[in-house]
Amino acid sequence: MTLQTLHNADPRQPDTQETILVVDDEPVIRDLCEKFLSEYRVLLAGNCAEALQIYQKEHCDLILTDVMMPGGSGINLLSQVKTLDPNAVVIIMTGISQKDIVLTALREGADDFINKPLDLLQLLTAVEKSLARRRLKEEVASLKQLDRFKSNFLSLISHKLRTPITAISLFLQNVEQGVYDLGDEVFRKNIKLVNNEVEYLGRLVSDLLSFSQVMEGHEGLNLEPCDLNGILTEIVNALQRKEGIETEFQVSPLPLLNLDRGKITYAFQRIIENAYKFTGETGRVSITLCRAGDTAQVVVTDTGIGIPRQELSKVFEKFYQADPDNAGQVRGFGLGLFYAREFVRQHGGSINIDSEPQQGSTVTVTLPLQ
Fold it and tell me: Mind listing the pLDDT tens digit for each residue in 26-63?
């Protein structure tokens, strides 16, 4: 059985090819590795400097590097790569079995070693094992992140529900104990406040159901031709707007866009709702849709409280909420903009925000027309 026949006996064909960067100053070694690892996406570099340039531009799942090369050793490359990404997977190829080289490579975080001259079966086995360990680490990290997310989310829900439930409970206890005169102005005022809390609880439950649906369909897109003008018009018409807030809504004729209607509607709902939410009792919210080259651009501007410059980088993080009074009583879960950005990015678009305290905010969403 030839090496090529052995190699093709059990091919791996993942949905997305993993990328291997082969670094060696010998063209014949690079060519041999590229041919034998043909089931992967293989990038080639002849020295450390070239390898670093490629690594910083391209996503690499594994680096396969020689030790002795002109212009820098594979150990130096290993050290620099691990500095950029401690989880990077690096296999060292060496024809020198000096103990100090092996120990240095291990201290720098080498994942495996292959001796020269290369045994191609050993090469393939080392690559597969190292990539399998990488996938396992990523899966464990993802599970840990999900566990932290669930814990934080449950804690947040508990906090958000406690305040309105406490207010309603105290009111009912006072009613039961005969504290109020049912015809008293204070009683009528508190009835209104409690009713507001009940409506808020209803909105929280609605948001929870919405987030549940969002997370269930988080990965894929269900694309269909959509009229973005119509989607924005439906969102604006469905909003419960404060009487003191003026709305400016301008749309432009656009071709139908291939969109996931549910996800893109969710994204713009959260962006536009935030504009009204943080504008206060009076002010203006402007929503403009226009064509910008080969993209559709939606600009949502408000005259609200704004966001400090140093906080702008955090607004798309999970659970972040703008809280200018530091009261911890901002309503909502702080997940809307996080998922809004995720869904816009899934469509190949971008979302940016510009803001100044007390000067309002401007959110710009760009989506490709094709």
Answer: 999 999 899 889 889 999 999 999 999 898 888 889 99
Given a contact cutoff of 8 angstroms between Cβ atoms, the answer to whether 275 and 363 are in contact is yes
Kindly list the distances between the CA atom of residue 289 and the CA atoms of 250, 294, 303, 360, in Å, as whole numbers in the listed order: 6, 14, 18, 19
| Cβ-contact 92, 76 below 8 angstroms | no
Q: Cα dihedral sign for 137, 142, 146, 149?
A: positive
What is the residue type of 340? Answer: A
Confidence of residue 15 (pLDDT cuts 50, 70, 90): very low
Cα Rg of the chain (Å, integer): 29
Both tokens of 42, joined, read 């293989």
CA nearest to 278, candidates 165, 364, 341, 362:
362
pTM: 0.48
The residue type found at 307 is I
For 322, the token pair is 């703008």
First-residue to last-residue Cα distance in the chain: 50
Q: Quick check: 245 and 285 in contact, CB under 8 A?
A: yes
41 Rama sector, left if φ>0, alpha if ψ -120 to 50, beta otherwise: beta
Other CB atoms within 10 Å distance of the CB of residue 167: 17
Tokens representing 126 are 């080392």
- For the CA atoms of 201, 206, 208, 211, the dihedral, rounded to the nearest 10 degrees, stands at -150
Residue type (1 letter), 30: R
Question: What distance in Å separates the CA atoms of residue 33 and residue 90, rounded to the nearest whole number?
Answer: 15
